[in-house]
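P.,

For your records, the input lines for the assembly:
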Amino acid sequence: MLDIVSGFLEAMVRMACPIMLASLGALFTARSGIINFAMEGIMIMGAFFGVYGSYLSGNPWVGALLGMLGGLAAAVVLGIMSITVKVDQVVAGTGINVLFLGLTSYLCTVLYPDGQPSSVEAFQSVEIPGLSSLPVVGVFFQQNLLVYLAFLLVPLIWYLLNRTTFGLCLRSVGEQPHAADSLGINVNRMRYIAILLAGILGGLGGAALSLGQVSVFMENMTSGRGYVAWSAVTVGKWNPIGIMGASLLFGGAEAVQLRLQALGIEIPQQFFQMLPYLLTMIVLAGVVGRTVGPKAMGKPFVKGER
Amino acid sequence: MICMNFGGTQVRVERKKRTESPLFQKVLGIGIALLLVILVTGIIIALSGKSPIAAFQCMIKGAFGTKNSVAETLIKAVPLLLSGLGLTICYRTGLTSVGSEGQIIMGGLMATIVGVNLGGLPAPVVIPMAMIAGILGGGIWAGIAGLLKAKLGVSEVINTIMLNYVATYLVAYLVDGPIQEAAGHYPQSDLLGKNAWLPIILPGTRMHLGVILAAVSVVLVYMLLWKLPLGYQMRAVGNNPIAAKTNGINVARNMVLAMFLSGAFAGLAGSVEIMGIHHRLMNGFSSSYGFDSMAVALLGGLHPVGVTIAAIFFGALRTGANTMQRTLQVPVSLVNVIQGLVILFVLMQALLSRFTIRIIQRNAKEKGAKQHA
Amino acid sequence: MAEKILEMRNVTKRFGKLVANRSVNFDLERGEVHALLGENGAGKTTLMNCLYGIYNPEEGEILLHGKPLKLSNPKDAIAHNIGMVHQHFMLVPPLTVLQNIVLGQECRITPMNLSRARAQVEELCEKYHFQLELDTKVADLSVGAQQRVELVKALYRGADILILDEPTAVLTPPEVEGLFEILQQFVSMGKSIIIISHKLWEVKRISNRVTVLRSGEAVSTVMTKDVEEADLAAMMVGKRVSLEYEKTPVTTAQNILELKDVCAKGAHLASSLKHVSMHIREGEVLGIAGVDGNGQLELSEVIMGLLPTQSGSVYYRGEEITKMPTRKRIEQGFAHIPEERMTQGLVMNFSASENMIINCYDRPPFTKNHLFNSRQVKENGKKLVEEYDVRPRDPDALARSFSGGNQQKIIIAREFAQDPRLVVAVQPTRGLDIGASDFVHQKLLEQKEKGAGVLLISADLDEVLAVSDRVLVINEGEIMGEFVPGEIDYTEIGLMMGGTKRTNSKAGETA
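Structure tokens returned:
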């Protein structure tokens, strides 16, 4: 029994990692007042270039770096569309997702000699001496480095948002951009910074998927995790700790599915695949209305216009 | 202002205020957007070592070259058009639905259940029945998101996405279990009774009755939006829900209704796709028509006529890309790239139409500026 | 003569074709309160936004201590010790008072250390006798307290020159007195203040000098003590206008609308309606006077059926309509000129003619046999545009392309074309110039003459007094008293607006 529990916990934490990284990135955009609907596109770029980088260099760290750059590229498009051109952020995000989904599939056939990305050097789990041998919870300390990084980022980002003047500026931009502007804060620059951070973390999230869980890129391998990551921001009530909880929830749903299959329990796997999405709907129906997100969400900033 | 120099030809991009009519500006903007899409796509093709000109030629031939290819283009345009019309209603009411894919799937599922079980009934009975089932399936699926938005204020955006996945996995479960074909080989349903198949209207091709249904739907949606008080109401809600409420229009009811109608058209698209093409339910039968129809609705300027043109354009793109892949080995995923670019550039059209490109031919015999776009 | 610390020379600011400020000259001396007086739309705020770096003027220069000053954004202004308190506060409600005060000073990812800032702010508060809870969220503060946060925010940034945009608009009379005391104190400590206002008494009461702006131009600058309010009014509007209208006395005792003991939950406790009873007769203009945000909006919404009542009942021509939906009320002859033209009144992306039917689109001639007739809509638009002198006379133009006054005309045309029995007009002339305001008043009185009941809700006391047959004063959602214009003086009205109930009310029988 203990084996099953620890196996489940191990999978939950591992599955939660890509969503958590992306969701933490999306949090920056959310707090700055931008709907980051492009997270799916950002993640798929991260997943693709993560594998490609590792393929080129044989080193997953180079992969992760390239993955971040890939996510960054997709994020820049979102930035231009939503901050500079000031179009509908949801529709722009959808366009970005379609574009980069197509582009990564296209690049797959173009960049790899046999038209198929091959298996590459991936992140290996690193055991933390001592802690990893603890019963049950020991599995938390037998993860790959990206998982540790994701959990490490939670308090860091919380600190950044709540205990630094940078966080203060960012939040004010998402709440009352005109007030921020009147105090000399460059609203659009803050939003670009937020989007770039979202690109880096989202790209890393994608790389965590392709390099941390499997070691290969598959077409459309994010399969909606970007949308889930964005929903996790709302479900997690716009703060990193809530996001950690929401990501574990989604990771848990994925893990349960794997575990049950392994145990041979006869519940159709599709129901478990549905679970995270149904949970999101239920949690949102319960949460929204009682908590309010950043006030300027989705509204482009035009100087002097209220 | 940006200046560029291409081999003696100076191109200057300026920003200026336009005085032409809004319609002209819109058409101009979309035209420039499409030009840019072709340009960027061409570069992407060229970078992969293929000739963009040959690729585009191949696409056009593949989409319109023969009677059969025209028919293929049209039957691919049908679900895009129906779903795009639904989204037109929804976007005009101010709701951003991303849920057409799931609604198409639910429509297809319901039509399949009717078509498989009541396939023995005469065609004039079972075809409408299956379609109504599909319409209700899609409509109610969308209505869930509409209700949650109207009653609890939950973002319809997130919920429609979630419902897409739920629908996908629901069908995956059903075709692998309760409604799996009797033979039990593949995850797919039994074939629909022959009477539930949509009749072919162009012999020798796959062009089915759905093409006519879609054409009728264009008129219906036009009527709804501009010839019925309900359409006025919905557009008022979409443009300014606060003013609509102040003037006694029931905003919540209009939202739910618009979501239902948009789902109904998507559901119809799903049932037509099952009854006209696949004749049975299987995973992924919609091949992301629902997502593409978002681009169709936007590119069509949220007007039924524009949406029709856009749907045929996207249908041609799908058909043409298949040919392109077969003959030139340019991956079919390029279609997604093109669609993504279309959405992004069309979104920028308002901005694009404000630019003027001047081509100044310095070394040419005729001196003087040519107004280009 | 005192030292001239700031000078604006020939400042011109354009928005497209519109000239908001035309070659304006303005100067400020150390230790004075300089009022910038003008009507809505005269360009006062624009001029000050130029001084605060929000706008960049096309022409002219700004001199600080005699040296030319280049301001490209508010940060520059703050760096030169210029502070501004905007009419709509520039505060971030979910942040605490202290966070709001220090916001924008720096943007670093190093640990935020507020202890020094806290000490500084506390010192400031002590010096100027402010009472502020530094760790309260701004969202939980009263409007008056929020204004004090804005003032401290400017002082904390070292402001020597303080710009206040319509600072009394949202305050109750005692709060206004409090503010004026604070300003006097600032001045005595050597700070200089520019106060934007369109209220004559306020300018007279607080300022040393006045510059009057009219249609974007500076008309003149005078010493306040040398002029009377009437002179200022003349300078402000260009001609002497007396707000006086001929009114037929109300002859009937027939109530068109009656509210009995109505309670309703508002946006804040202060604006919730508390046991409101009132009536409007046929052919009567009933004015509601009061400081903004004291339940006026809620009152209009209850009458229009947009806000549910918690208790009490509403009667229309003798029949109870407490729970009747808005649409039904409109069909039965309610007209509504809402407070927010652009958000509540108009669909900005609809044409003028489409906007002119939003209250009747589902009735003949616009909808016949369930079909919507867009030709009738256009015909109607063309007719109403003529009749109500909407300019430009283009019923197909989008609502957003009209000026404020003409947008209001579109709303009035729509509402009055239906021959209403009851008109609910909320702040109908806010932001309009004198000519447009006069037009609105005439149209309201026309409805009265036709026998409709008119409810005029306005924070502009002069307007209420000029147009109404009878006036109710509202404070914190309660009716403080009732009077007939001319019956009592401003002091008594002011007391009621500030929350003192009128005791010797004669119940206002005006027939």
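Two observations worth noting. The CA atoms of residues 105 and 270 of chain B lie 6 Å apart. The radius of gyration of chain B is 23 Å.

Regards
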